[in-house]
């Protein structure tokens, strides 16, 4: 039976009856009994093989030198002090020739710290300070001077301790209060390497990783997957790169963390590397990168990355590349949260970066409702974001470089909303690809930047596509967005196999949107069907009363040429009906018809009671007006220049002659 001892035990052992043997084994040449402290005075001026003198050691230094805990043991049936065994030490013996200074050790040194080796030449202990050095690279011990001819050289160091079961050893973590077994501490995190995973990116680790996941899933509270319960067991990938030949599946609310997965070339094309099954609600994948694999000769991608079949999952800090159909496919994802995820069908400088016809996949495919996405990037894919589910929120997401064509337009699409209402884009960035909205237009877009560079193929910022007749785009809100670059078809394009109503009848709210140069984008402002304003014009739709009312609690002022820097012809207020100008208020306040002799002030059924004026001017050259029953008209006869009046019965009287 072996009993491990420390330097304090050695101190007592040196006082035993057999201490001479112990001194010899430990390389202590001093004689006499007593403790380590007693030995110190006898160690003065020890001569070394190289002629130098090793300065004396203090008792503390000697104890440190002899601190052989875990490698020294007493051996014997009665655990007495009769014999001392130096377990787990290894030695290398050599013979000096007077000229050689470097010797190849018979063991592989595990360190280059000189103090880790006990070196004796003809029984004389050598100084680790300046007598020798050890190289792990060459396996050599090199002396500062050549050992004498036929000198016996012994180099001793501790060997690796193996074969001891310490699982039941108890420890107390720094700062904690409870002692625990090491076996319990190690079990707090499930390490895939404990299940046989290699993590070299070449060895197939599919079975090992699945075994680790299955074990972790078995530790969760399977009875309450959607409420607070036992779970969130960590499966640690330990920072390694693990190769997969098939799908690994998560069945319960565990956490897969800290590593990378790559698909091997024999992976079944179109299968997912990771599937979060329906029973794994609240599972999470964090700090894990995915590579679906790429054949650089054929540009074939082997595997899709992740399929989410469970609600309330969390995906965070993930990079995914190389996928033929899907980066992440959310088949079920209510209340799921995805953040800091970057998905690129093609990595930088690969073929699909320059050739957009090679883009075939949906990076993010969101097919369910009520999920949240923040700080995510989808790029170099046919559809960087594809959304067919309603009520999803996207905050600070970047979508760019979509594929060459889409369902309804020959231009790249960065973000595709396909027949799903009430999605929200806030503070997003769409680059070289349009926001393509198909059929369902109840969407909220705010603070989003639409960018088109010279490499972009999209001609629109927002592309609306309908198959309906008389589509009014009800519920689309676009607020505070910017449009940069050349959108030749306009910042917003209305297209499709159906038809759209005129702009005033489109039920869009469009406000605060502009080109990056400060010019208005599409309309300056539009509020549903009530009104819209564009450069130089405002349009108003009548209300339930049949009129558009402008109401104020104080005076209402219409001001033309408010800064008085225009010519008189441009300083007027114009009133028009039926698309034609009728009356004008000109500079100085003159109210005139827009076209001479075309307008009346009042008519036979809408008359003024009284007209107050200090002068009425009647223009000469008017022939007799038509008879209007019940009315009299004053005019200047063009034939003789006389002022006349014609009554309702046709009688004409001269008021004054032109003399």
Residue fraction in strands: 25-35%
Query: Roughly how many Å apart are the termini?
Result: 152 Å
How many alpha or pi helices? 7
Helix content: under 10%
- Whole-number tally of structural domains: 5
Averaged pLDDT: 83
Give me the Rg, rounded: 46 Å
CATH topology of the largest domain: Pectate Lyase C-like
Number-wise, the strands total 55
Low-pLDDT runs: 1-19, 21-86
Let me know the largest β-sheet.
23 strands, mixed
Label the structural class. Answer: mainly beta
State the CATH class of the largest domain: Mainly Beta
CATH architecture of the largest domain: 3 Solenoid
CATH superfamily caption of the largest domain:
Single-stranded right-handed beta-helix, Pectin lyase-like
Overall 3D form: elongated
Write a brief caption for the model.
With 659 residues, the chain is mainly beta.
What's the topology here?
Elements: E1 2-4, H1 7-13, H2 19-26, H3 36-39, E2 46-47, E3 53-54, H4 59-65, E4 72-75, E5 84-86, E6 89-95, E7 102-104, E8 117-121, E9 124-125, E10 132-134, E11 140-143, E12 152-158, E13 170-171, E14 180-181, H5 182-186, E15 189-191, E16 200-204, H6 206-217, E17 234-236, E18 241-244, E19 248-250, E20 255-263, E21 272-276, E22 284-291, E23 294-295, E24 300-301, E25 304-308, E26 314-321, E27 326-330, E28 337-344, H7 351-354, E29 362-366, E30 372-374, E31 377-379, E32 383-387, E33 393-395, E34 398-400, E35 413-418, E36 424-426, E37 429-431, E38 434-438, E39 444-446, E40 449-451, E41 462-465, E42 476-479, E43 482-484, E44 492-495, E45 508-511, E46 514-515, E47 525-528, E48 531-534, E49 537-540, E50 573-577, E51 580-585, E52 591-593, E53 633-636, E54 643-646, E55 652-656
Parallel strand pairs: 15-17, 16-18, 17-20, 18-20, 19-21, 20-22, 21-25, 22-26, 25-27, 26-28, 27-29, 28-30, 28-31, 29-32, 30-33, 31-34, 32-35, 33-36, 34-37, 35-38, 36-39, 37-40, 38-41, 39-42, 40-43, 41-44, 42-45, 43-46
Antiparallel strand pairs: 1-4, 2-3, 4-5, 6-12, 7-11, 8-9, 8-12, 10-11, 13-14, 23-24, 45-47, 47-48, 48-49, 50-51, 51-52, 53-54, 54-55
């Amino acid at each position: 039976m072996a009993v491990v001892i420390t330097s304090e035990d050695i101190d007592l052992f040196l006082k035993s009856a057999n201490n001479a043997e112990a001194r010899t084994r430990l390389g202590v040449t001093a004689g006499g009994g007593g403790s380590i402290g007693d030995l110190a005075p006898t160690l003065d001026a020890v001569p070394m093989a190289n002629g130098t003198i090793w300065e004396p050691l203090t008792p503390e230094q000697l104890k440190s030198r002899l601190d052989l805990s875990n490698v020294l043991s007493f051996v014997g049936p009665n655990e007495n002090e009769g014999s001392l065994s130096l377990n787990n030490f290894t030695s290398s013996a050599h013979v000096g020739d007077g000229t050689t200074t470097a010797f190849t050790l018979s063991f592989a040194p595990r360190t280059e710290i000189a103090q880790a080796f006990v070196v004796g030449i003809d029984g004389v202990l050598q100084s680790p300070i300046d007598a020798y050095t050890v190289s792990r690279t060459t396996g050599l011990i090199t002396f500062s001077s050549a050992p004498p001819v036929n000198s016996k050289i012994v180099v001793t160091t501790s060997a690796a301790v193996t074969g001891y079961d310490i699982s039941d050893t108890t420890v107390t973590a720094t700062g904690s209060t409870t002692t625990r077994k090491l076996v319990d501490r190690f079990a707090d995190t499930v390490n895939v390497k404990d299940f046989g995973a290699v993590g070299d990116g070449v060895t197939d680790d599919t079975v090992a990783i699945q075994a680790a996941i299955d074990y972790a899933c078995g530790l969760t509270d399977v009875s309450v997957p959607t409420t607070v319960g036992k779970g969130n067991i960590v499966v640690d990938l330990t920072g390694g790169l693990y190769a997969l030949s098939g799908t690994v599946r998560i069945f319960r609310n565990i956490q897969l963390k800290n590593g990378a997965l790559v698909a091997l070339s024999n992976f079944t094309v179109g299968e997912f590397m990771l599937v979060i099954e329906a029973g794994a609600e609240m599972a999470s994948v964090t700090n894990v990168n995915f590579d679906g694999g790429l054949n650089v000769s054929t540009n074939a991608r082997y595997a899709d990355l992740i399929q989410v079949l469970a609600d309330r999952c969390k995906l965070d800090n993930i990079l995914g590349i190389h996928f033929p159909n899907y980066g992440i496919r959310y088949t079920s994802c209510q209340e799921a949260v995805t953040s800091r995820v970057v998905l690129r069908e093609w990595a930088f400088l690969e073929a699909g970066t320059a050739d957009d016809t090679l883009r075939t996949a949906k990076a993010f495919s969101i097919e369910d409702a009520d999920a949240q996405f923040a700080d995510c990037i989808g790029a170099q894919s046919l559809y960087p974001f594809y959304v067919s589910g309603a009520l999803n929120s996207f905050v600070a997401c970047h979508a760019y470089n979509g594929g060459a064509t889409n369902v309804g337009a020959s231009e790249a699409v960065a973000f595709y909303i396909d027949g799903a209402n009430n999605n929200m884009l806030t503070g997003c960035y769409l680059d070289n690809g349009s926001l393509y909205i198909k059929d369902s237009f109840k969407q909220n877009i705010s603070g989003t930047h639409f960018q088109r560079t010279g490499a972009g193929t999209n001609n629109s910022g927002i592309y609306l596509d309908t198959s309906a007749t008389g589509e009014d785009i009800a519920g689309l809100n676009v607020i505070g967005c910017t449009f940069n670059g050349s959108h030749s078809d306009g910042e917003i394009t209305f297209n499709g196999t159906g038809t759209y109503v005129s702009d005033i009848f489109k039920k869009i709210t469009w406000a605060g949107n502009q080109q990056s140069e400060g010019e208005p984008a599409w309309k300056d402002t539009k509020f549903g069907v009530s009104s819209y304003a564009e450069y130089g014009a405002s349009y108003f739709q009548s209300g339930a009363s049949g009129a558009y009312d402008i109401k104020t609690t104080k005076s209402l002022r219409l001001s033309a040429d408010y800064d008085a820097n225009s010519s008189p012809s441009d300083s007027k207020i114009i009133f028009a009906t039926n698309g034609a100008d009728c009356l004008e208020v000109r500079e100085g306040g003159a109210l005139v018809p827009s076209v001479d002799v075309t307008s009346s002030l009042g008519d036979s059924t809408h008359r003024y009671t009284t007209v107050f004026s200090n002068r009425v001017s009647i223009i000469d050259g008017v022939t007799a007006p038509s008879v209007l029953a019940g009315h009299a008209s004053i005019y200047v006869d063009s034939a003789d220049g006389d002022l006349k009046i014609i009554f309702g019965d046709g009688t004409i009287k001269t008021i004054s002659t032109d003399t």
